[in-house]
Amino acid sequence: MSSDRRDSLLDADWSTAWDTLPEAPALVPRPKTAQITLRVPASLLARIKTVAAARSLPYHALARSWLVDGLRNVREPEPAGVASDEPQAEQLNIKLDQEVLDHLKVRANELRRPYHRLAREWIETALGREEESLGIDASPRRPPIKDLMVLLLHTPGKDGTAVRGTTRLQKLLFVIEQKLAAESTSFYAFNYGPFNEEVNDAAHALRLAGFLSGAEPTGAGPPSFAEMMATAVERSGPRDEVDVEEYALNERGHAAAERLRQSSHAYEQLYAYVRSLREEWDTPDLIDRVYETYPKYTERSLIRHKVTKRLDSRRSHDL
Amino acid sequence: MNRTPLHHMVRIRRTDDLTFVRAGIMDEIIVNANQLENSPDSTATALRQTTLPFTVDPVLYRFQLPQWWRNEKGKSKRNYARLGAAYVKDTNIQITAGPLVETVPNDDEWCILAANVLGYQRSRLLQMPTQLDLLNEDHGRELHPVRLVAPALVAVSATEDRINRLLVEASAGAAAAPIAVPMIVPLDRLQDARERDRVLATVPTDGISSYFLWTPGVTEELLLSDREIFDAVLCLIGTLADRGIPVGHLHGNYVIAALHDLGVSAVVHHLGWIDKGEPVEQQRGGLRSCQTYVPGVRHCVRFEQANSLGRTLDADAYAERYCECAFCAGSFSAGEHPLDLLLEDQYVPFEDGRGRRTPTGRAVALNTWHYLLSRRLEMQAFSNLPAVDVIDRDMERAAALAGSRDTSRLRRLATQLHSA
Hints:
The complex is a heterodimer. By secondary structure, chain A is mainly alpha-helical.
């Protein structure tokens, strides 16, 4: 090349031609699919799963469709809702086309938000719409009996954290539920005062999950002889050996209870409240106090007269 | 030659049964919907702890007559009331007001009912996780049933046949996938060839993945002693299997498992070892009878008889003649005779001064393991060998353990199978 030719090339304005050049190929081919991992509150994940179940769809696919829908829509998502104060303790993995992820990042940049946050907000907005259309009530409800039971057994009583006897466990949870949400109680009057079969069900579930003392989580394969014998030891032998059942969390149970307590501000408060109720009510005369305070729930009781007599005698003694 | 395995399904009827749900000793779990409503949390927990597939039996037939779902005081049990409410959502049906066929006003409502029953199977267990479950690292799988079961009534007459067909067709439409269809044939129609044909004619084939037969009231003894009934059951199984759709039995036993080569693909059994022919109505509680399952003779016997048959046997003779299950073998290894554990009982006095003996709670638990493991071995035997070979082997064992009576019982079955 002559020096004149080289100089003319160097002096030329190439800016217009540069803009028309095709993109250089990536040095490493980009994968066609990508994954985005969102940290979400446990309650949000539970709501997504509920809607997915109602729609008979896998929840990952449903969340992806909401995200893609958000990208197509020019509207901004609504700000984070009810779960915003909860720690984002759960993970939601969503597989996306690489192009969709790129699009999400561009949109997030335009809206000046981190793209993970934008994705989460789109999902939460769509979730609210779906819940409304399906008639699902996502407002916070009475805490499930199982969660209350775990918190109760995690609080210190006068003789440790254990609760002795099914009747005492029933009555303590009854009092807690009455104080929290008496209008939506699931307890009813039965043979020994207020009763709720959910309590027995929850206790059995905790035992099967290996959260109660003496219980191990169920093994994956066929049972060993020792495991079979363990299921027998839990049960009664001849009648004179019958003992009062004791409900106590084991190490795994306490760890689970602690996770639950720390999972949100609301559960922290609930734990503190359950603890104060236990301090107030877990006394030797619990049954008498329940009968005295909640007479409606003792109408069918087989021991009502006995308890009434005991209460009368105490009153006359106090006088 | 490769043989198709016999699918072994265990029915969960009560909360106590959940303790025995373990992979490796069953292929699938079938949960009664009334039990699921009775203890949803522990049922969900037990299912999450295993990798076993599961199915929910909708037990719609329980609503067919009030005495089948009400308690001894004539009141609707709370779990049935909840189940019924879920089934009749968005309809005008008062499900616990009387016999079901009288409370459903028209075909449209039957179709909504069918769709609701399918929706219940799909979603009931998905509603269960609490915050505690979701935070648990071992939370496990989401609970989706492996198959959807069409609701069905006991086929008492042509009226129920027509409704059953309607329910199957509505369920297949609502499921948008092949469904399992129960066929519940009462004894009087089972024994009548024309009635059998009528029932069969109303059971559709389109959109069906499997049939599940059940003949309430037909005990194993009845099957073995009444050739007509045996042939009738065989006829139903054969006719359904000839349609190229797998056939299971909802309340199977040793004799039903022996029909594997003649068309039975799956056997469901519950964890109670006393054969009552599985009546339709909800079984009442009460003291258990002192009986135990003896695999050596393939039926259950009273404690005293079991004691005289097996207590003097050493580990090898016991395994050869009485039982070879993992519980009994483990018991010998631990230095204890299994019958000392299995036959533990106690005297329970009644208020009227009388009383009776009943197994202790722990003996019930151990008998349940022993029964379940023994049934598993039977299923495996019928999966691996032709039924006649299994029965021949069992006859030899029964003769060594108990002599001629039990041998002749098994010989009757072999003869019936040979001539089938």
